[in-house]
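Re: the 88-residue chain
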Amino acid sequence: MRITFYYRPRCGLCEEIAGPLAQLAAAHNAQIVRVNIDEDRAALRQYWDKIPVIALEGGPTLTAPIDPQTLAAALARSVTIKTGESPP
């Protein structure tokens, strides 16, 4: 599974969710693709006022504020939908 993490340097909310995101991605064997919106014009136009943004492949796109529990639940649902298996 691929997780796209849209962030901006020195973004407090981005820094807060980055750790839980890394832990949850590792637990689900997911790949994180980090996109600095300051370096991606399309992402900047779409997400400038919503970061952090976490887009789960085949699942929802979460926007700020994102707490670890919401992220874990969304990731578990995405894994279940993608694989047809029960969440861990």
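The chain has three helices and four strands.
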